Amino acid sequence: MTVRHVPAQFRTIQAAVEESGPGDTIRVAGGIYAGPVTIGPGRDRLAIIGSGAENVIIEGPGDGAGLTITGSTMVTVTGLTVAGFVTGMEVGTSDNTIRDVTVTGSGVDGIVVSQGAARNLFLRVTVRGSGGDGIQIFGANNYVIDSQFHDNGDDGIDFDGPFNLALHNRASGNDSGLILQGANCLALDNQFVGNVEGIVIRSAGNLIFDNFISRNSRVGILFLDATESLVLANEVSCNLGPGMQALAASGIAVIGNTVENNGTDGIELTGGATAFVIDDNEIEENAMAGIRLLSDTARHIIRRNKLKRNNPDIAAQPPAGENSLFDENECDTSEPRGLCRCDD
């Protein structure tokens, strides 16, 4: 195992990669390096260590991917920027670590993780100004942690594969901050602020816990053909449209959230949404209804919510209000009357 230095020993990063074997380290001094860089087979456990994302720039001519990992696993890439390629990074293998890396100005996606690529860690990554997604993950069991996704043309984080984790990230200025199209994903302690949509859920078995979702222009959380997911203890506030909106979704548990000061409804169920459980939420000062059930929804359970200063607190169009259960909701106003504990 050998340590190689760029540019002291090798003029380019790619030249150092081609001379490297398993377990080698490439240390890159400050400078602008014309890419692209491809880490192919036979280089498991290779590390490319830049002197800092502000110092080391892999600069693209606009074609292809800036940095590609293919055929080798347990690769580490850290301390550099990838700028100006069609795709910033493509990860096609498993168990790699990408940390303290910036990807900027990609023509399409910032980072793409292929189907079959698993257990990759993206830690303290910044992706901004991509024409498409900030990061798009087709594989399973990948981890996006403590990273930032700003001003990308499509989604900040796009989980197309299952069992992926988004933890303690911030996304702003994207189409969606996070979209879950793969099942059984986790979104924990993230901030989705100032996107078009904060979170979009289009799959089953997801946990959305302790996120801050605010000032998104269309909706805070959108359930679209989603099923069997838990939305727990999030703050959903000051979105310009509804805090949460369900379209053709079913079997969602919405428990212990704070939903306040949204531009229309706090929680809106429509488009054939069925079998929601909405329990123990605090829903206050939304411009329209705190909880709204449209007539095309059915079989919801709505219990022990605290609603104040909404317009009204609960609105349930028939037959939704007739085939759903309302129990011990603390509120002042409902349409029809009788859905609040205090307005019988």
From TrEMBL:
**The Right handed beta helix domain, residue ranges:** 172-306
Ranges for the region named Disordered are 310-337
Print the keywords alphabetically. Answer: Repeat
Q: Does the keyword Repeat apply?
A: yes
Gene3D superfamilies listed in its UniProt record: Single-stranded right-handed beta-helix, Pectin lyase-like (2.160.20.10)
Read off the InterPro entries from this record.
Beta_helix, PbH1, Pectin_lyas_fold, Pectin_lyase_fold/virulence, SCF-Subunits/Alg-Epimerases
Recorded superkingdom: Bacteria
The record ties this protein, via SUPFAM superfamilies, to: Pectin lyase-like
Q: What is this protein called?
A: Nitrous oxidase accessory protein NosD
Record organism:
Symbiobacterium terraclitae
Q: What is the lineage of its organism?
A: Bacteria, Bacillati, Bacillota, Clostridia, Eubacteriales
